[in-house]
Amino acid sequence: MKFAEHADEKFPPREVDTALLVRDFLEEEPGADDRLSSFLTRLSRRTICNFLGTREMFTDDLAQEASLAVLAYIRRRGEFQGDLDRFTITVARNTCRNFVKWRKVHEGRPLDDFTPFLASHADGPLDWLLGKELFDLVQKALDQLDEKCRDLLRALFQDEVSIEEIRRKEGVKVVQTVYYRRAKCLEKVGRYLRRRMDDWD
Asked: Is there a contact between 177 and 114 (Cβ–Cβ < 8 Å)?
């Protein structure tokens, strides 16, 4: 993804130490993912409201999309250098632009058609449960996970517990934190499955 510069923009004074938020997030300090996710979501939501207006029905979904993209970028690189506010605003604006293009193409179609655009980017290997052999393989993958990941995925995919219920149970402030944890856990499952499938070739 290409991130444009917005050097001519005037941003509000920074209210939090974003470098500290990122450091704690990467070091997996307790509650750090919740704090960073909450900050990114608020900033993304404000940007999206400025871009699309305050009555846009997909604002919360787009804010989630943008904040998850920033979280994934930071985690993937293992660091963040630069202005996190500007970077997040750019990601949110690009998310809006992509959404506007999508809506123009799909104008007049049912709302369900927007689902592929708004869905999480996480790999979905648990969706591959198409037979006993593969089911057993996924169970083995789950067994390789740490307890928190295993409990989260089983709650979501086996017990069909909602994201909101898990958020309340875990005591986190925003659902984006749960979405992010789900994505990281599914990445672990995906890596295990890819290794095993490579063995079959």
From this structure: no
